[in-house]
Amino acid sequence: EVQLVESGGGLVKPGGSLRLSCAASGFTFSNAWMSWVRQAPGKGLEWVGRIKSKTDGGTTDYAAPVKGRFTISRDDSKNTLYLQMNSLKTEDTAVYYCTTVRQGVRFNYYYYMDVWGKGTTVTVSS
Amino acid sequence: SYELTQPLSVSVALGQTARITCGGNNIGSKNVHWYQQKPGQAPVLVIYRDSNRPSGIPERFSGSNSGNTATLTISRAQAGDEADYYCQVWDSSTASVFGGGTKLTVL
Hints:
- The structure holds two protein chains of two kinds.
- Chain A is an all-beta fold.
- In chain A, 0% of the residues lie in helices and 57% in strands.
- In chain A, strands 2, 4, 5, 6, 9, 10 and 11 form a seven-stranded mixed beta sheet that branches.
- In chain A, strand 5 (45-51) and strand 6 (60-62) form a beta hairpin.
- By secondary structure, chain B is mostly beta strands.
- Chain B has strands at 9-12, 18-23, 33-37, 44-47, 61-66, 69-74, 83-91, 95-98, 102-106.
- In chain B, strand 7 (83-91) and strand 8 form a beta hairpin.
């Protein structure tokens, strides 16, 4: 069974840093593209960013609101995905979900989040 | 940047058919995916690439996409279908985009 378990959330002051982890099991993590999606309290879903598998280059892409502040990385030896969050703002307060990604081309490029973890809560407040 | 527009809420009588729309400029040229999120839970993929159901998703869930509107259709709606539903696409300039979400109420 595919399983994703996030951890590392908590309360942090504005300007602070936090690192989230996502432990993956039940699939070949090293072959998987992964992403982070967040949801602010009472709001909708917001894509944060993604990391490709190392065989596909291992590169990352980010949403505009977090670019330059957040970094996604992976440790394939530990089947773990990370989200390093720096210079945190109050608007970064959200539940952060780790997801697997399916992508490819069918007439046009497609990209969707296949399996989701239960999420970890990040609160940025003074 | 690319935007997706969903109605804030949709209501459906028990056992009837609910249709949730997702509007976007020429969305028919994109692959649309749908997620269901029940209160306090993580989202679940219910439709991918316009009209495909992941294993475990009932046949009552179907999708279509043409022109400027994609539609998620839930037939024979049940109380357990009450949830927020989000559409999502990949746009070459905006990356992954979600609609604002639609709250489905089953009366």
